[in-house]
Design goal:
Blueprint lengths: L4 H23 L8 E3 L6 E3 H17 L4 E4 H7 L9 E8 L1 H5 L6 E8 L2 E9 L4 E6 L4 E3 L2 E2 L13 E3 L8 H16 L4 E3 L4 H9 L5 E5 L3 H13 L3 E4 L11 E5 L2 H8 L22
Parallel strand pairs: 3-4, 10-11, 10-12
Antiparallel strand pairs: 1-2, 4-5, 5-6, 6-7, 7-8, 8-9, 12-14, 13-14
Length: about 290
């Protein structure tokens, strides 16, 4: 199936902007007006706005692209499992940073990505609170509100750069050991600073536009990273599995970096085993040269 990536990008952008009005309107209401439910645990949340945002996004995409497949965070969470095929697939996070949204923290985003043959090819990340619209398609460059963006090339290693990650939802001992152990190793490498904003999508967009030099995390899903992978690649950056293997959208462990050197330095700090890693066989050590 031939896919017109520019048309897909233009349409996804219009949908993200339109649904952004809904999300921003809800964000501006009192916190107690949100209907909040637990998903996997009391830290993993969903709101009525997440669900309505996803419903509206998929209604628009399905009407325009009836032959494509669709993967969304809320529908997948209810189903309990998901997989990708080689068919063109819209991959959507209706509100990334739901906990931030619940607490009226502005670090949130709508993410609409498209994969073809399991490879990310179109990405739109929109923060309606800050009115920041990141867009990219394969071979077409990456943009923030229409202006071209590039990864930072000034920092040559972690000692000159900023890293970003998130704590995620896991509170089990092995998760804490991985998270804090990896952070400790990165700090020992002399990283200039580490930021935790609570949204994978905005963190990845930050790599693409040069605000930070690397984002790493285990636990996110395909809908957290598909759009961002296109952005970082088109902005000149590096996208990898956390172990150093090529990117697999379903691995649930990722590194997005401004340079191969910073990606390698970060990967060498990862503590094993990696929580949530979903591919078989799971790595027991890094594969960075």
């Amino acid at each position: 199936m031939a896919v017109d990536l520019q048309h897909c990008l233009k349409f996804a952008t219009s949908v993200a902007k339109r649904v952004g009005v809904l999300v921003y309107s809800a964000y501006c209401t009192p916190r107690e007006d949100s209907i909040v439910k637990d998903k996997s645990n009391s830290i993993d949340l969903v709101t009525n706005t997440d669900q309505e945002s996803e419903r509206q996004i998929f209604a628009a995409l399905k009407a325009e692209f009836p032959d494509f497949e669709f993967l969304g965070e809320e529908a997948a969470s209810e189903a309990g499992a998901y997989s990708l095929t080689d068919k063109p697939t819209w991959i959507v996070d209706p509100i990334d940073g739901t906990t931030n949204f619940v607490h009226r923290n502005p670090e949130i985003a709508i993410s609409i990505g498209l994969s073809v043959a399991k490879e990310p090819v179109v990405g739109v990340i929109y923060n309606p609170v800050r009115d920041e619209l990141f867009t990219a398609c394969r071979g077409g460059g990456a943009f923030l509100n229409g202006a071209p963006i590039r990864v930072d090339t000034v920092a040559k290693d972690l000692g000159e750069g900023l890293a970003t990650t998130n704590l995620g939802y896991g509170r089990e001992p092995h998760h804490i050991k991985h998270t804090l152990g990896t952070l400790e190793a990165i700090m020992q490498r002399g990283v200039r600073g580490v930021r935790m904003g609570g949204s994978a999508c905005t963190a990845i967009a930050g790599v693409a536009c040069g605000r930070v030099n690397v984002y790493y995390e285990s636990g996110p899903h395909a809908w957290d990273v598909c759009a961002g992978a296109v952005l970082v690649r088109e902005a000149g950056g590096v996208v990898l599995d956390m172990s150093g293997r090529p990117l697999d959208l379903c691995s649930r462990a990722y590194i997005f970096a401004s340079t191969p050197e910073i990606a390698s330095q970060t990967g060498r700090c990862v503590v094993y085993p990696i929580p949530y890693y979903s591919l078989t066989p799971a790595p027991t050590h890094h594969e960075f040269s």
